[in-house]
Write a structure and sequence with these properties.
The structure is a homotetramer. With about 350 residues, chain A is an alpha/beta fold. In chain A, about 30% of the residues lie in helices and about 20% in strands. In chain A, helix 1 crosses helix 11 (about 310-325), helix 7 (about 150-165) runs parallel beside helix 9 and helix 7 (about 150-165) packs across helix 10 (about 250-260). Chain A starts with a strand and ends in a 16-residue tail after the last helix. Chains in contact: A-B, A-C, A-D, B-C, B-D, C-D.
Chain lengths: ~350, ~350, ~350, ~350
Amino acid sequence: MTHRIAILGASGYTGAELVRLIASHPSMEIVALSADRKADMAMAEVFPFLRHLPLPTLQKIDEIDFSQVDLCFCALPHATTQVVVSALPRDLKIVDLSADFRLRDVAEYEKWYGQPHTAPDLQAEAVYGLTEFYREDIRAGRLVAGTGCNAAAGQFALRPLISAGVIDLDSILIDLKAGVSGAGRSLKENLLHAELSGGTHTYSAGGKHRHLGEFDQEFSKIAGRPVHIQFTPHLLPMNRGILATTYVRGDAKEVHATLAKAYADEPFLQVLPFGTLPSTRDIAGSNYCHLGVIGDRIAGRAIVVSVLDNLTKGSSGQAIQNANLMLGIDETAGLLLAPMFP
Amino acid sequence: MTHRIAILGASGYTGAELVRLIASHPSMEIVALSADRKADMAMAEVFPFLRHLPLPTLQKIDEIDFSQVDLCFCALPHATTQVVVSALPRDLKIVDLSADFRLRDVAEYEKWYGQPHTAPDLQAEAVYGLTEFYREDIRAGRLVAGTGCNAAAGQFALRPLISAGVIDLDSILIDLKAGVSGAGRSLKENLLHAELSGGTHTYSAGGKHRHLGEFDQEFSKIAGRPVHIQFTPHLLPMNRGILATTYVRGDAKEVHATLAKAYADEPFLQVLPFGTLPSTRDIAGSNYCHLGVIGDRIAGRAIVVSVLDNLTKGSSGQAIQNANLMLGIDETAGLLLAPMFP
Amino acid sequence: MTHRIAILGASGYTGAELVRLIASHPSMEIVALSADRKADMAMAEVFPFLRHLPLPTLQKIDEIDFSQVDLCFCALPHATTQVVVSALPRDLKIVDLSADFRLRDVAEYEKWYGQPHTAPDLQAEAVYGLTEFYREDIRAGRLVAGTGCNAAAGQFALRPLISAGVIDLDSILIDLKAGVSGAGRSLKENLLHAELSGGTHTYSAGGKHRHLGEFDQEFSKIAGRPVHIQFTPHLLPMNRGILATTYVRGDAKEVHATLAKAYADEPFLQVLPFGTLPSTRDIAGSNYCHLGVIGDRIAGRAIVVSVLDNLTKGSSGQAIQNANLMLGIDETAGLLLAPMFP
Amino acid sequence: MTHRIAILGASGYTGAELVRLIASHPSMEIVALSADRKADMAMAEVFPFLRHLPLPTLQKIDEIDFSQVDLCFCALPHATTQVVVSALPRDLKIVDLSADFRLRDVAEYEKWYGQPHTAPDLQAEAVYGLTEFYREDIRAGRLVAGTGCNAAAGQFALRPLISAGVIDLDSILIDLKAGVSGAGRSLKENLLHAELSGGTHTYSAGGKHRHLGEFDQEFSKIAGRPVHIQFTPHLLPMNRGILATTYVRGDAKEVHATLAKAYADEPFLQVLPFGTLPSTRDIAGSNYCHLGVIGDRIAGRAIVVSVLDNLTKGSSGQAIQNANLMLGIDETAGLLLAPMFP
């Protein structure tokens, strides 16, 4: 059985990544692609790397007949998303890749995104889409909110540790290194090759990055009390990949054992042997997340390093993993592609 | 039915690329991997990006039981290859990725590779592996010699034009731009990131590049008289991809029409609309080759630009395409992965 | 004696490069910097790499008191430039880095730039700023038009050969590889790191690149008859540097001897030993141009490779070299910085 | 007056960087260059980017007449260095760039470098070369030991804070991002462009990096009690530059004020306005170090980010700064070059 798929916002990187992955999916067929400003263009004009695929012409959203769609991926900017999703049929299965439905508390949304939420009912309905931790809710969900890519990298490192109570909750620090595709196709001077290549800098430092809203929500929920971590992202001269260096206080071997046990049966979360740390090169283009743990020379301190591809496991791959659950098919369908190296 | 595959030389980039692609192949199973100096290591130690795959431990070649192998990919250095292949069972299907069996004339081999060929009988048996032009021979072949990656890029641009007689044979010039993975995992100062990134230079300029042996052999054969082209490769600060800018004298529209017709039914060779030229970004990681044609402002001169991924269509993808033919399965099996962008 | 310098268009890359170079100049002092949309900002806000320098605040052009300026560099976009320069004092020494005064024939300007020239009197007055070939005119000039960066790279390879009559004039072909800073700080999708890095493509192929106007003008003048070359530029994933591979018909040794003799006393033009070809890495950030010559395997064909830094010898360094001549100081003043490697 | 300079180990990156910088130095002349395995080669063969400079031919060390040398830079590997320096005249001024004389305690040297020190008398004589904090000792010194590049980046961020007692000494953490030239010209697979570009990974994590020996020595000395920090370096796909993200507990404004005051008169250490964080792009190729401070959202925690060029301020620029002091000339001579951007 083939599931009919629509992708809204197909002219951005996560939209294109959805198309790339679905091209290898055994039971999904793309029946509609939207891109408002590029409506009526062929996808091959917008993304020539997809020219070998038979794909529908780009449309405006209101031209799509959603009665012929089984599941809709929504890869639009935040704020726009809540308006668009509000106008979609209320029985349409939706996997959203924006930030609009990640935070359950509308006050938190307004705090981090600087504007009131206009669709609080949808926000209440939405399931948080970190697959490995919300499987049953996602399977039963209608509207699933994909996580932030950095938020995913950090949570894979930390959730089992907080659940198991093996680390101090008041001294968690994530120093994160992110590739530039996470910034999307935005036209900004500092994203130009001439300015970005060959150097690095922090961004949203000092506790301003919006994915902190997700960390706060999730970690506090697990711990049953407020947990606030430190989080400093850096932009690196690479296109894909996130490396999160997470500093915790706890026994390193216990930290490792806790992660290894938690992810023993997870197809995409791979815990390396104790003392081995991962590289972003080893997951590029794939849905895998590698995690490594090492002890610091200072006793009682451990370092967890997690890597994933922000466009795949961090957004579009995660979205398909969630869609697989929602459609009742094998969770790994279409997602077992090996990474690309070099 | 699953075909049992061995890969000799699995610790290099083309070996790893074979594993990456076979991981998505519907009917191939890897039963043996060799790497002499890394024998007894797990593939995941040599290439951590493959750690999610169940793979045989690396062996020495003489430890492999070839009676349990249906087809063997040989990804060893030239010169070594002829010694190794000579010692393999004479009924074993082999796809070789080295240069050892590409040139039919042993004198040409000695001229370009600087040493006599030690297995001229095998050389005589070998089929030249440019799939789209040697399909029937490959299907019937036992030993197929994969082409040079640059040689493939140039031949896709030129073979139909020479066949059709639409260009002048004495003024063909290829200015080629190559990514660094084509140089393999060799430890050379000029391949270090610190030295290669951020700049470009020529290599093997002035008619010294060994792939000229293939161009001479193939173009002269098609034309029925000696054809010698100019060929200047450049090394670029990118990992994958070849862009061949081919300058010919002939009518540009006729050149375009000739290529478009020749490749109309080819699944992997895509001719862009007249006047549109391709980018290496649009084929990275895939088995596709894009070709574009434009006329110069000087009447009677045309420019053909062809792009392919040196590790995929230029070597390991081509090798699997040939293996598919030799095994009697669908030529495109395992090779329809979309490129990765960005 | 210190010469008072103004830079119009200081918020672009060539403007910033002028500031970088003048910071080491023994007898130039920057007294005014303009950037219309960024007026009233400190230069350190626009270019933090210049924060250690005491520099004037950015102004609008009409706020500058040109009576206090000895020489003005104009680093504005073409078309804008002719309007701005028309309004400047007619006795002010100006080195222009735009395309507006490079072509002596207004019809050629209109042909290549798509609009009529509005200041033909200034165009007639302007001296073409290829320093090594127009020294006396530049020394006596008031308005000097810097060359295109690609145009400089190609002319250094070809002018002495055309003058000496050692090559065929009807089969000259330049295949050029350019770094991305040549495109300036323009906000275009294909200049984003995510899209440019890791790949290459042609641009303005087929005889459409505007620097052909300069090649036509200069080569025809030297030859005393029309000379039209082929010219195909490629954009490379590197920030600085141009490598021009120039294919000519002529005796390679004679080609080399002709260049070596022509540039024997030039401080910035370095001809490598016969058979050695240059790399862009070896001139990055400097005012040097390296040239190499090799013979092709086909007798009677030679390849000249020239490399320079588009922002230095290709624009801002050349501009300072010209300014030095116009101010009567040592031509090399401030320009002997070694390249930066790695 | 011109000072006669020898450079031992001129075929590595720090050796070449010394030559690049000295080329612009007003009062240093290079009279001898050594490179044992490349003796008798011209420097231009080893580093073509230096071909415009008149330089002595490479020699073996024992061929150099040190009676004609005023100051010797030693850019050799550790362990080799102590042997070589032991054999040099005992009145020769030496600036060493290796690790051999950085640690005052021979036991610490053996602990971090894995072998006993063979020249403990020289180790005792050596002055630690962090210029801004050891000026008087350096001025009077004969043998000055350049610091580790990472060690410099971290100390600039932390020394004044420890001195002033404004931070907690038991929770200091440096997460460092380093460009690849810091690894030198070593031929290792993971330093190849094909493997390093496009990704990132940690190295020497968990408290194993040797520069911790310097941190321990210096911070404990300042504090008057043992101070052990956490330090995790990451290798980034860029050639030059270090960005050290230093996490401390203390009042962010006080941290900023302390650094601003400490470095108010330092020509090379630039403290940015509170809340502004630096980029490695803004110091590339220069002797400047930029420092920024921001407060975390968690009260009482501050983040200090320091950036410098590992080859310049982190090694060869620092070495020249020290040499200037030892020779009694202006400390900034030859070191005021602006960074290169883009």
